[in-house]
Design goal:
Helix content: 10-25%
Number of strands: 14
Radius of gyration: 20 Å
Shape: elongated
Structural class: mainly beta
Length: about 280
């Protein structure tokens, strides 16, 4: 890839990505009894984001650290690669494009074909470490209540989903749901692409560009930290879904994820640099 994933994940503030294509070809078919083995759809998200300029960070150019309103798109390809009577193995591949520069990631889920909740994968199949959560879509004829949880790949945790109410999108009747997911980033493939540390000089150069509360914390912490300074990463994601009342498929979504870079000061986590994808 022409640009390291870290320069994207370490860099986006306030991204709001909205699906731009409806799943007409699947929504229009009769209601199914279970997830089909032929599942193969692509979701398109588009929006803008503001991010850290990786080149400016590396060179110490503090005046150009933040880039604002960068065009951002996501293509998410969901495909059933194998099925048994009760379980489907589904790949979830994402291509992220920021100002024309792309990166990608891939996840594999084992799903119950009726409930669409994650289950233990078939023997010999590697899948995300999740059971009992929704990872791809809501089930057929979803419930209008708070009984669901959703899997967040970044933190590798399940979080509760809140039912918002009835709505419509286009000519489809939908249920609206929302979920907020917060925690330390545990996805190892993602962590391997992120810098584990930064020199004190680089953090000091970033300080004038940060909001006052964050700047004060970082400046106060620097003297207590080793050089280079070890970094820790946490993510907060807010997901809003408008799911078809019959098929459970997402007719519309908004996604906002913020990644925060922090340091450990005397056993206490101090957030020093907000960012997101």
């Amino acid at each position: 890839m022409p640009l390291r994933r870290s320069s994207i994940v370490l860099g986006v503030i306030g991204a709001v990505l909205i699906i731009s294509a409806l799943l007409v070809e699947l929504v229009a078919v009769p209601v199914l009894t279970r997830l089909p083995g032929s599942l193969d759809v692509t979701l398109h998200y588009a929006g803008t984001s503001s991010r850290l300029n990786a080149q400016a960070v590396q060179s110490g150019d503090s005046a150009h650290v933040f880039l604002q309103d960068v065009p951002t798109t996501i293509d998410r390809h969901i495909k059933a690669v194998s099925t048994t009577a009760h379980t489907a193995v589904v790949t979830d591949d994402t291509n992220l494009s920021v100002a024309g520069t792309t990166s990608s990631e891939s996840h594999t889920y084992a799903l119950d074909r009726k409930s669409l909740r994650t289950v233990l994968p078939p023997i010999g199949t590697a899948a995300e470490p999740s059971t009992g959560c929704l990872a791809v879509a809501f089930p057929l004829k979803p419930k209008a209540n708070n009984s669901y949880t959703v899997y967040d790949a970044s933190t590798q945790q399940c979080f509760p989903v809140t039912y918002v109410g009835k709505d419509s999108r286009g000519d489809r009747s939908v249920y609206a749901y929302t979920a907020t997911m917060t925690g330390a980033i545990n996805e190892q493939s993602l962590l391997r692409t992120l810098p584990p540390a930064l020199p004190k000089q680089t953090l000091a150069a970033l300080a004038p560009q940060l909001p006052e509360p964050v700047r004060a914390k970082m400046v106060a912490s620097l003297a207590q930290l080793p050089d280079p300074v070890p970094l820790a990463y946490a993510a907060q994601t807010t997901l809003n879904v408008w799911a078809d009342r019959k098929t459970g498929l997402p007719i519309d979504e908004t996604l906002h994820q913020q990644v925060t870079v922090g340091v450990d000061v005397a056993g206490q986590q101090v957030d020093v640099m907000p960012s997101s994808t």
